């Protein structure tokens, strides 16, 4: 950890993102989705995220500042509209080098608990912690269809409204409910969906996570195949990623 970084994270008054890090933030491919008018807000949220959230290296990971920045940069794309801070309940981000094993505590459909741990690339736990596989964060930065940061932080937003599944806090829900329910049922019927990960058919919560992944990783394809869904998220996130081609084969 460099000296300025320690100073910057040492608490006290909020300070703007240091200039060197503004340059680094612009190197994150997805930051190109942020229009100039929203850039100061984006930078401020990334700075707040880095100051407030404790990163914990797990599984032998050698945590680097650039890794914190990448996670913060991807996570803060989801909260440009949020009026109330930066994932206020979230305290820790645990980062593993790759997929990690978690013990199974949920009974399966037969009521049995399988003792064998399962591999995961991300988890969001009761709003105070998010666990991520760095290899999968990197894959998202390189244009993979999976974006574990978008997925897990969508769960964080979803948990703002424990009484509603698959929806963040919104002033009104009519359009959200109408579009999301119709598209969720469509995915549940579809055997080979063209864009959305079939895992989204598990529940409305997972559907929201999967749709967010597609919005940031395959925006043009999402717009083409599910334009109402795309427009719903465009209006919610205040971003129009289909207007930017980040990867040559993105669509
Ligand atoms: Zn999930």
TrEMBL record:
CDD domains for this protein: Peptidase_M90_mtfA (cd20169)
InterPro entries documented for this protein: MetalloPept_cat_dom_sf, MtfA_fam, MtfA_N
Domain of life: Bacteria
GO CC, alphabetical: cytosol
One Pfam family hit: Peptidase_M90
GO molecular function: aminopeptidase activity; metallopeptidase activity
UniProt protein name: Zinc-dependent peptidase
Species the sequence originates in: Solimonas aquatica
